[in-house]
């Protein structure tokens, strides 16, 4: 049984329960965290090669980009001129103007469609908000459930929240969420969204073995790339989404609440080439999901049929055993009657 791997740079043993880095270009190339951090490589591996960080099932490592949720800014003094004595919900009061982040200049995307500092600040704050609102063992990563929650917060209708639909269908079928992980990872690959693979910490239905290093999760960088995709596809919709930042009570790492992001910071119109690409990706993703759901449904029906047959056979066997037991008792009673009759003669 394999319990560890060997770092290709320093030859140190990497336990399967520890964090390791794999190269997506070189075949069977693993690095320990020390060599990856210090930039120690060997063989044909190069620093520009794309890598994946594989975390242990329930590890919580320090992410240099993580922005811990900050406490809300102090509320302004309550006015005494109110005509009634009703208590005001503090969450309904916006923070003072001096503590708000004004968005009057600049763009969210650079000329090559990469996130600017403004979008990075917003993305990191939303990232921290999702982790705080929906806590998990890996507070520095967003799993598919987090992404589903984000689209729900965006106001996405249930049928349009594909991640939420996937989770609901899996729960309805009683199937492990591990089944949808390869499809979500493929979706990220098609859109060029960076992700890592970790192991789900929760138990699987029916005691099935967990899939190691199978769940795709987003770091801060991957989540920014997801927002860039959304902006390029439909800047008008994302303008409305970003307008909800105040209502969500989202703060940056300095405790400042976000002001509404003006329309001028968004692209004037969707990116035509990207719209064509994302449409094709969405159609393929939908087709793969429909095939997966159909297969899982068929397997579930076959399993239900097998269980029904076994239950019927068990019931028939029990009825047979009961009849045989009753017949045996009847024979024994007849024998005792005959013995009594013979003694009486």
UniProtKB/TrEMBL annotation:
Listed name of the protein: ZZ-type domain-containing protein
Biased composition (Pro residues): 66-77
PANTHER family with a match to the protein in the record: HYDROXYPROLINE-RICH GLYCOPROTEIN DZ-HRGP (PTHR39611:SF2), HYDROXYPROLINE-RICH GLYCOPROTEIN DZ-HRGP-RELATED (PTHR39611)
Stretch list, region Disordered: 61-99
MF (Gene Ontology): zinc ion binding
Domain ZZ-type: 2-59
Extent of Low complexity compositional bias: 78-87
Keyword annotations: Metal-binding, Zinc, Zinc-finger
């Amino acid at each position: 049984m394999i319990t560890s791997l060997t770092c290709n740079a320093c030859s140190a043993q990497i336990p399967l329960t520890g964090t390791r880095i794999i190269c997506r270009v070189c075949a069977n190339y693993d690095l320990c965290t020390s060599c990856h951090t210090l930039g120690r490589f060997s063989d044909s591996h190069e620093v520009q090669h794309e890598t994946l960080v594989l975390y242990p099932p329930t590890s919580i490592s320090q992410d240099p980009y993580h922005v811990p949720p900050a406490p809300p800014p102090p509320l302004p003094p309550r006015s005494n001129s109110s005509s009634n004595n009703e208590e005001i919900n503090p969450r309904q009061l916006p923070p003072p103007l001096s503590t708000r982040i004004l968005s009057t200049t600049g763009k969210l995307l650079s000329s090559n469609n990469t996130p600017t500092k403004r979008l990075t600040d917003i993305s990191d704050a939303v990232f921290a908000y999702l982790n705080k609102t929906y806590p998990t063992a890996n507070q520095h990563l967003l799993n598919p459930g987090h992404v589903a929650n984000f689209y729900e917060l965006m106001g996405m209708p249930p049928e349009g929240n594909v991640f939420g639909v996937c989770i609901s269908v899996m729960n309805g079928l009683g199937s492990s969420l591990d089944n949808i992980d390869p499809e979500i990872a493929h979706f990220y690959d098609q859109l060029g969204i960076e992700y890592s693979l970790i192991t789900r910490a929760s138990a699987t239905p029916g005691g099935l073995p967990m899939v190691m290093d199978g769940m795709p999760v987003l770091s801060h960088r991957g989540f920014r790339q997801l927002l860039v995709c959304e902006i390029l596809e439909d800047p008008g919709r994302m303008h409305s989404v970003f307008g909800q930042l105040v209502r969500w009570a989202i703060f940056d790492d300095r405790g400042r609440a976000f002001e509404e992001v003006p329309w001028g910071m968004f692209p004037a119109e969707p990116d035509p080439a990207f719209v064509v690409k994302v449409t094709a990706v969405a159609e393929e993703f939908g087709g793969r999901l429909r095939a997966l759901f159909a297969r899982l449904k068929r397997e579930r029906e076959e399993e239900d049929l097998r269980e029904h047959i076994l239950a019927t056979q068990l019931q028939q066997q029990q009825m047979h055993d009961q009849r045989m037991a009753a017949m045996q008792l009847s024979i024994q009673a007849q024998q005792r009657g005959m013995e009594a009759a013979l003694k009486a003669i």
